[in-house]
């Protein structure tokens, strides 16, 4: 059994109104650091390659080392938040992430940079895995919670495009080292604010949920799985012997984890949590929508760079409308939409807008015009993301008990991260394969390859719409008792 609500009585929900919102801003600042790091590094990769003499294949490890640690540890980090206290895990993650960022900036060898990026991934997982659980504890009232989750969803989903702009500015104006050094003042300030503004919560204690075999199995499965996606699958193909072998290892580890969790007295991930259709459906939608969106941000950047000839700063500016629209809807209007229509309708509407935007991107030609062929797509993605992601985050935590909030927060983060890695690998591979098979001119073949991936991304997100329509059905509400009913009962 897990702790009762009495055990969890000393939580951040007891904080005053103003201090709760200041705590929320602190949590969002921590999340922004993590999200920015993903795309800010992508923009700087050519400069890093030239300076440290990476080969094209070894350069991928600057990204992959982070993804493997981050995706592999999210679920475990979320559960550690429930056991050790979410503020403790959040601040520990900030310290690790900040220290690793400084190490990345100081790196003068390939090996040191890759090792530091792996440590960064560990810190990123610890920091981000517990944030959503802390938010729903801070804001138990539905209207305030919807507004708070809207702010979090904006940072989590739109921060990546801000990273494109920041990466371009820092890399071109100073050097790639500063994309990591800027995390030092941000990390220190966020850590100090977290200690001062976020009330310390009492975890369940390791004795109430320690499951070392389960932790080893799920962490191993996620790390091997993410490695399989970002390395052999992307480079050698999905049917290559090495890819199939590692995929089999992943499945064996997952099967062992499920057996362990079904039989352990104190499981790391209680399987009862998946009895909730809402939670299960939200995580499936998170995986699919992340697959489509993350892959398109990456391939869309390549279209702007390789086909339209944009530089790093121009790419960041090009994606700015997506960030602005997503922020406006997430922060100002998402809470009103959720309170007026419930979370399901905004979720379906937002995902549908994303599907339309991705389908429209398949028409962007060689020599396309930004305002005609690109801006409408990015506007639809921003509108759709700003409407659907806050609703999705709320649904993912709707049926979760307080003692499982960290686990559920880590779970939705894990599905997003693994979905993004899987989507990027699939879409990038399909794009390259389609381009290589095309008999057209090199630039047209490259554009056709991007078009093909945009179409597949639209189908992937459309599948998430189907899940929202079928799995995420609203619960039947009891009929309201009318005056006539009361008279009949009395009679």
Topology:
Blueprint: H1 17-52, H2 56-84, H3 86-106, H4 110-129, H5 131-138, H6 142-173, H7 178-181, H8 183-197, H9 212-236, H10 241-263, H11 277-307, H12 312-318, H13 320-341, H14 344-361, H15 370-396, H16 405-437, H17 442-470, H18 483-490
Helix pairs in contact: 1-2, 1-4, 1-5, 1-6, 1-8, 2-3, 2-4, 2-9, 2-16, 3-4, 3-8, 5-6, 5-16, 6-12, 6-13, 6-15, 9-10, 9-16, 11-15, 11-16, 11-17, 13-15, 14-15, 14-17, 16-17
Q: Notable features of this structure?
A:
EmrB/QacA subfamily drug resistance transporter, Growth Hormone, Chain: A, cell membrane, disordered N terminus, transmembrane helix, mainly alpha, single chain, transmembrane, transmembrane transporter activity
Structural description of this entry:
The chain is mainly alpha-helical and 491 residues long. The protein has two domains: 14-209 and 268-473, Growth Hormone, Chain: A (Up-down Bundle); 210-267. It is 79% helix and 0% strand. The protein is built from 18 helices and no strands. The chain has helices at residues 17-52, 56-84, 86-106, 110-129, 131-138, 142-173, 178-181, 183-197, 212-236, 241-263, 277-307, 312-318, 320-341, 344-361, 370-396, 405-437, 442-470, 483-490. Helix 3 (86-106) runs antiparallel to helix 4, helix 6 (142-173) packs antiparallel against helix 12 (312-318) and helix 11 packs antiparallel against helix 17. The protein is globular and about 65 Å long. The model is unreliable at 1-13 and 483-491 (pLDDT under 50). It is found in: Cell membrane. One of its GO terms (cellular component) is plasma membrane. It is a multi-pass membrane protein.
